């Protein structure tokens, strides 16, 4: 599973690309479930995205993955 971020008509669009290379609408619930099962899908930011936006998106996603992993680690100790 990958997260694909691209630009369409001046809008930033996020989709999932599954293991069968099928594009699916982005689903926050699915992402949350993946993150809390210690699966942090690869994020692919299309070159159509401005470099500054790309850096912000990647940084935000890295922080989300780190937070999900730290919450999972905290619950493992109970």
Question: What would you note in describing this structure?
Answer:
This protein has 78 residues and is α+β, with helices and mostly antiparallel strands. It is 45% helix and 27% strand. It has a four-stranded mixed sheet with strand order 3-2-1-4, covered by helices on one side. The protein is globular and about 35 Å long. The model has no long low-confidence stretch (mean pLDDT 89).
How would you summarize the topology of this molecule?
Blueprint: E1 2-8, E2 11-17, E3 23-25, H1 28-36, E4 42-45, H2 51-76
Parallel strand pairs: 1-4
Antiparallel strand pairs: 1-2, 2-3
Structure annotation, total helices: 2
Radius of gyration equals: 14 Å
The mean pLDDT is 89
Helix content: 40-55%
Q: Structural class of the helix and strand makeup?
A: alpha+beta
Any idea what the shape is?
Answer: globular
Terminal Cα span: 30 Å
What's the total count of β strands?
Answer: 4
Written as H for each helix and E for each strand, in order along the chain, the element string is: EEEHEH
Q: Main β-sheet, in a few words?
A: 4 strands, mixed
Q: Low-confidence runs (pLDDT<50, min 5 residues)?
A: none
Estimate the strand proportion.
25-35%
Task: Give the strand order, joined by hyphens, for the main sheet.
Answer: 3-2-1-4
Write out key terms for the chains shown.
78 residues; alpha+beta; four-stranded mixed sheet
Overview in brief:
This protein is an alpha+beta fold.
């Amino acid at each position: 599973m990958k997260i694909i971020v691209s630009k369409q008509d001046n809008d930033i669009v996020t989709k999932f690309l599954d293991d069968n290379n099928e594009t699916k609408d982005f689903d926050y619930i699915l992402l949350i479930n993946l993150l809390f099962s210690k699966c942090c899908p690869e994020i692919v930011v299309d070159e159509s995205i401005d470099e500054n936006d790309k850096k912000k998106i990647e940084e935000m996603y890295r922080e989300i993955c780190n937070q999900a992993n730290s919450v999972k680690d905290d619950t493992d100790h109970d």
